[in-house]
Amino acid sequence: MSIYPSVCDKINVKVANVDVVKEQIAVTTRQLASQAKVGEKVEGTMMSESKAGIFFDAGYSRDFLAPNNLLSKPKDEYTRGEVADLTVMQVDGDRVTVSDKEDVGKPIATFVRGQEVAGKVVRYMDSVGIFMDIGASRDALWRTKGPGATVLPKDPKEYAAGEEVSGLIITRLDAAAQTLEVAMPGAEMVETSLSMETLKVGEEVSGTVTKTIAFGVFVDIGAERDALYAISQLEKPLSEYQPGDKLEGLRVTEVDAQRQRLGVSARPVAGEYDVGQEVTGKVTKIMEFGLFVDIGASVDALAPTALLSKDTGEYTEGEVLEDLKVTRVDIPGNKIAVGQQAGAGSSEATTSIDKLEVGSKVSGVVRGIREYGIFVDIGLGRTDALMPNSMLGDVTSAAFKPNQKIEVYIAQVDAAQNRVTVSAVEPTAEMRQRYIPQGFMIPDPKRHAEIIGREDLMDPEPIPWYEWAEKFPGLIRFNEKDQVITISVRAHGFYGEKELRQSFPTHLPVPAHLQKADAKPASKEDFFVKLEDQPMPNYDVGIKPEIHTKYRQPPLNDPNWREFPVPDRKPITMDFKTIVERAGPFEPSEKPGLKKAKEADGDD
């Protein structure tokens, strides 16, 4: 007997992933990976190996990753199909990190900032501090350099591996980055001559080489941490640099206190280049979106596809480009963009935004495809026009390819914001007013009608409100701001007016078994509402009626609006208590069938 469902069988599935650009939806009958719990014990089957670690199938919608540092043995000793007991260490959306170690320690997410801990010294690193084993899945850092560094009770080099230290508290915890930091309560902060919080890109500094590694040289410039002098930026071979060497004339190329990144170089930074300056460069990396080019600066310049004279696939690494111009300079971020002077998307625009006319047809080239629309180069230089999904006509973004030549209509022009909106079809008045057609709304009535099988509910020719507004000025007015409409939770109907009304005040005494010991005994009268002693209905106590009226939904916020015509008569001024007293007690009338029963029995 097959365990798989037959054709036409109904099964319950969950949406595991949605790719709007590719128009693909992945579903699963399994439990979602995001539903895994940190610390949970699961059983997994080894599925594949990667540079990052081993992937296990634990019965969820996505395989779990056991990174190299959380494996109980070398990667090459695992075999496909091998079963292992796993501990969930981290859950980040649908990405789950696990470990098959028995003594892996507690997940970092189970610790809290300010928690007191004790630990053993694992190792000391001069660049950051002492790493401590506090029983977590990752060693905690007792920082001696960098943000939050403190003065230790003794010289950090005097701490021996395995030495126990108590009285520490957790000062920093980042479950996503899997990092922990500890310190002694009330410890003095380490003072530095420079601070990463105040350092700026391009600032000139000097320093001393502390160590050399395969990808560069670390230099002490007096900041909380050593700066990296990348191997691609060095002025001489790496082997010629020795610890203790003094380096002058360096400039800060990168500074990020949050991520603890600090870089220096002797080459020019972005601020030393001018837009329009002609440069020569060598291709260092080829990407789908463009080329990275070494122009002699402290960072490789980006030549985007829109500013190249040919497709990226026609270039080779190491190729020299002599017809480059600087098109953009980001001084704080130390980033440079360049383009070829004869490029198809050169910064030399073939038209200007002031010459564009709404409704006119122009030629363009697809430059980018996003989930919300298409970016089209229509000859505005570095400014691409946006063709949103609502203006693609009967096709989707999947029908377009990068560098595809198309013809589009100008739908909107915003010269102040330097923005242009185009359409694949001739734009109507609704589209020019940012109208979202049925089929692109969230929630969408067209899709809802298809699901319930009631296409007859959809108007084949919806009312063209924006066209009417243009054709008949003053007939239709639109709100300047969006208005929130209240609907029921299940959206089965519109109850906005009812939900905006205030409820009637009601007296609900506390039952005897829930009353305090000194409470007075509940009487029969306590369970009845005395209307004559209550404030006017529909208004909260202490709130003026005009306040309620002002913030109700139109037309209820208009004091002069009436649902039914009001008779032309003089109003009678009377308070609510008087109205109740005049009405007297409620006396129900006889039921219709009661009188007939009495007559049949001969009662008068």
Automatic annotation (TrEMBL):
InterPro entries: NA-bd_OB-fold, Ribos_protein_bS1-like, S1_domain
Region (Disordered): 550-569, 581-604
Comp. bias intervals (Basic and acidic residues): 588-604
Cellular component GO terms, alphabetical: ribosome
BP GO annotations: translation
A Pfam match: S1
SUPFAM superfamilies: Nucleic acid-binding proteins
UniProt key word Ribonucleoprotein: yes
KW DNA-binding (keyword) present: no
GO molecular function, one term: structural constituent of ribosome
Record key words, sorted: Ribonucleoprotein, Ribosomal protein
Domain S1 motif: 39-101, 202-267, 276-341, 359-425
The organism's place on the tree of life at top rank: Eukaryota
Protein name: 30S ribosomal protein S1
Organism of derivation: Symbiodinium microadriaticum (Dinoflagellate)
Lineage of producing organism: Eukaryota, Sar, Alveolata, Dinophyceae, Suessiales
